[in-house]
Amino acid sequence: MWFTRSGAVSRATAALSGSVFVRYFSQKRAVNVRKINPKVPHQEAYSIARDLYDVIRTHGPLTVGNTWTHAQEAGVSGLQSKTHMKIMLKWMRGRKMLKLLCNHVGSNKKFLHSTLPEEPQKEPPVSSTTELNLQTVKRPVKLKGRKKSK
């Protein structure tokens, strides 16, 4: 009687772990976007990326279709087709130039490309004589356990 219960429990555990195992290994690995081939020489790829970056920065988060429209209006040279632009956008994401946002609209999703927030320029601190005079003097540290002798 004890063996039938534990056998049922172990079979259920094995079935559960087996389904988790199958679900985990049936997923496809994510594409390594750092190894995307831009299909043009690197110098040309960087100039296309700079132009696309400017288009996305000026017009805000854009879908792929809107990016293609704005890129044609801006006259981005070097793009051969919309598919080539998609490859370039993926290459730019791998280079940490862009980020991809998902916007839920009802039951549909919209994917938007946007630029990463730029770090503000840090200005060197202006040193003045008044700031140097405002420094406080350190007080002497009192040691615990010692009594003052009078």
Task: Write structural notes for this entry.
By secondary structure, this protein is mainly alpha-helical. It is built from 5 helices and 2 strands, in the order ααααββα. The protein has a two-stranded antiparallel ribbon. A hairpin with a 2-residue loop joins strand 1 and strand 2 (108-115). Helix 2 packs across helix 3. The longest helix is centred in the first third of the chain and has 24 residues, at 2-25. Residues 115-150 are annotated as: Disordered. This is Tumor necrosis factor receptor superfamily member 21.
Order of helices and strands: HHHHEEH
Strand order within the widest beta sheet:
1-2
Average pLDDT level: 81
Cα distance spanning the termini: 85 Å
Overall structural class, as computed from helix and strand content, comes to mainly alpha
SS strand fraction: 5-15%
Oligomer: single chain
Number of helices: 5
Which value, in Å, is the CA radius of gyration? Answer: 30 Å
